[in-house]
Amino acid sequence: MSSSAPGAPDRDLDGAAALAAQLDRALDGTTALPADPAYDAALPGFNLALAHRPALVVRAASPEDVVATVRAAAGHGFGVGVRSTGHSAAATGAGDVLLDVSALDTLVVDPVARTATVGPGVPWQAVLTAGADHGLGGLCGSSPHVGVVGYTLGGGLGPLARTFGFAADHVRAIDVVTPAGDLVTATPTQHEELFWALRGGGGSFGVVVAMTFDLFPLDTVRAGTLWFDVDDAPAVLHRWRAETASLPEEVSTSVARLNLPPLPEVPEPLRGRAVLVVRYVRHGELAAPDPLVDTLRQVATPILDTVGDLPYARIGEVHADPDAPMPLVDRGGLLHTLDEDAVDAFLGAVPPDSPVLAAEIRLLGGAVARPAGVPNAVAGREASYTVFLGALAAPVGPPDVADELQRVCETMAPWSTGGALVNFAGPRDDVGASLVHRAYGPAYERLVALRRRLDPHGVLAPSARWDVVDGTPAA
Questions:
Q1: Which of 40, 362, 370, 398 is the most buried (most CB within 10 A)?
Q2: Burial class (CB in 10 A: 0-12, 13-18, 19+), 411
């Protein structure tokens, strides 16, 4: 059914009104057609560069609303694109229904079982806050404003990944509406193939309406950021690279070249500056030494130094990702190694006048490199580092900024594995699709086969960020 799925039948676009009328009778939630006053206000998510223009917007109020929407959309020949916070959802078009699940925000913490169960509308900060009352925390990403479910479906690489692995490695159960409109529970012993694919395979295998995952004893961590002037970047980054070869798994760290805008929300010492930042999170005994941090403080004097004891519920302060909606474009990749030439190439590719606002290298290894206790579809475990690039999209940023991100990626090609993590690969286009294809390796064909079996008509193709590779439906 997707407009991007080969061989899909044409949709009856005039059927949107009939679909809306059917759903209005069935849903506890709401619908909005393009002519409705609520339509335009319902479209924007966090990433304003995603220009949604669906045939219909549905705001679900319950899992039953999701079942009804998927079944009705399929019956009328429409695809379904799913969105919660809208950080990375693909844009929906005139042949699609935009299914907004942000109101499905149930959150239950079980401090005895050390689990949380969330709906797809729950952001990570809600879990961090709820877990803090019990000294527990979940494996969130760099931004606590991102939705738990979407992040985890893509694997979920967070600030403590080297210690605990991917978020997807610690999922216990998933309630999901299949492309056929059936509500099922996937676990290690029920719908096992679906359970495997959902944990790391992305959002095109079903619409998740609840997810249960492990929490960990996480009260306070040693964490923060060292901010260095760009002139100190070569010395600091070369030393960071050398030190990462011997770091224990308790430490997760990244470096980033940032070109900070001259905005009031940026701290005054950093406003409008080009900087190199070192992000650092250590799990374990707070009184233990931090040789990486101590060493880098000797290499150069930080402009700002926030490394200290940090309540885990405030872990988002380490990356300090923006929380206001804005138009963004990103791209990423995986590196098999990072030698001295790679460091020089990276710094040369993002000079202070670059439109690339953020260029980050994260250390992998540790628990990231080990398979999950219950196998899942997460790719890229063999890589040593991951690269992530971000910039403001047009009209705020230059119209060719996506080309600039790709140029930086090509600069790093000699050290690349050729793949990318699902959540880091960038927009839904042929480049992103190819990156994810290469990262999955042999698992790719298994994902494609399952998707074709579950969704032969492409009902959920609008939710597949990596939809087509050389004309072949992707996972």
A1: 362
A2: middle
